Batch of 2 targets.
Target 1
Amino acid sequence: YRVAGSEPACGLVSTMGDDGQGYFALTLYPPAAVRDAGRMPIDIVYVIDRSGSMAGRPLEQVKQAVRASLRRLRSDDRFQIVDFGSDSGGFGGSMCRATDDAVRDANRYLDRLDARGGTEVLVGLSKALELPKQEGRPQDP
């Protein structure tokens, strides 16, 4: 069973629940070899659950995933890290250009994150959504 072929593919499953609500699952499969296509600069916000239930391996895996993603950013991309437990924190109050210095500082920030407190998801998501937007960059509608 291979999910990646020569071209992107997708799968869609839909159903109607007993409650009359419709549900669907959409799966997108990237091609096996991704061409180095030109792309516009991206903005990405990493929202990290650092509540007590994330202690140990779960939080370490999240940190590894964020680090891997940060390594793939280009210098014209922007990023921010928002973390939450009982409260929220973050790498900064605005989007950062993905310069070598900023990525290095973000990795140091990740090193200091530890799991503690409750799981106040809304606090973290609200903080992420309140990040200032920059004119001239594509925005979601």
Target 2
Amino acid sequence: MLRKSNSLTVGQLIAAKLADYDQLIKLRLNLTVVFSAVFGYLMAVGSSIDWLALLMLSLGGFFVTSSANAINQIIEKDYDKMMKRTAKRPLSEGRMEMTEAVLVAGLFGVSGLLILWYFLNPMAALLGAISLISYAFVYTPLKRYSPIAVFVGAIPGALPVLIGWIAATGNAGMTYMALAIFFIQFLWQFPHFWSIGWLGYDDYKKAGFKLLPVEYDGRNKNTALQILVYTIATMCASFLPFVFGITGFAYLITALVLGCFFMMRSIQLVKQCDNAAAKKVMLASLIYLPVLQIVMVLDKIF
């Protein structure tokens, strides 16, 4: 069997390279973005699914998000070295050359936007480009200058649902329902990312990232109260699909139960102001949005 000088087999070298690409494009995060785009598409079409369009939406969205995540790591390579959670990424640890990462980011970005344009429509590609540019070149550098970065980042974070909707409906498809599902995901990101920022505060501080609404010593009751306010706002926004007559009582009950669960975790953080409570908010947020979206789609279709 062929072996390299470092005693690794060809298979092990390939596996190591794939693992590096997994980290570069943030595969698990990437798949959640694709899920959001698919959700937006299904909300627009109901049960009349064009499977080729759905496949191209998933593929195009995957490539665009991969590009954005790669650019994020290219820009933050030196800062990633300062944080325990990111120090072993391929660029920060030197396992991947910058030229390779730039090439991958460029190929993924161009390929993804062309897929969205050619197989879906120009508006879907335009929103994809806005999402890529705003995440990689606005949100990413802004994190070191102001807590407003979370607000800016919440826009590309919520755009996948609109990209999915527009992929299904075309340029004239921006309706109040599309804006409602965008607004839910937009608001949800504040308690989600602030709870993550709370848990990783010490690590983020080493790199100069300002991810909590209170810039200095942000793990306090003020931050906890803002997390609670945005949790309640997210819960209220989640009732809009029912108010607009898109979903029925099954969804309404689910939204109420999930919202109360999410809100109770945030109230606990206000009372305790510690990492244990912040972790519960973060885990609640990870349950809240995908379950809400799955039930929304099922209630609309059936």
